[in-house]
From TrEMBL:
Organism phylogeny: Bacteria, Pseudomonadati, Pseudomonadota, Alphaproteobacteria, Rhodobacterales
Record-linked InterPro entries: PhaG_MnhG_YufB
Positions with biased composition (Basic and acidic residues): 114-127
Encoding gene per record: mnhG
Protein species of origin: Paracoccus angustae
Source species, domain of life: Bacteria
Transmembrane segments: 12-36, 48-68, 74-95
Positions of the UniProt region annotated as Disordered: 104-127
Stated name of the protein: Monovalent cation/H(+) antiporter subunit G
Sorted UniProt keywords: Membrane, Transmembrane, Transmembrane helix
Keyword Transmembrane: yes
Amino acid sequence: MSPLQAVPLWVAVPVAILVVLGSTLTLIGALGFARLSSFYDRLHAPTLATSWGTGGIIIASALMFSVIEGRAVIHEFVIGLCIVVTTPVTLMMLARAALHRDRAEGSAALPENMRIRPERPDPPAQD
């Protein structure tokens, strides 16, 4: 008898729903990444996939293995937290690097108001 055969229905249904929801959101993020044309548009699609999609799958996995093993499985939440925290930071760094590059090259991909770096006010003179 497999351990999965012993999983009660009240656990299997929410796990199945969370896995389907998480994988659907991940698929939507991947399709958005493939279909969107510019680099800046493509930055938004992976955040959906990694935050909500990964979250659904991790919650389902933690729930399933907590029931199978008979103890709370929390290390999966640590992995998920690392993914959810690092993805937006990484994408923000990529966006800033691309913006810096496009401004330096005078790229036509940027809107007119973003091609020029905003000027910083002069610091006040110290006496």
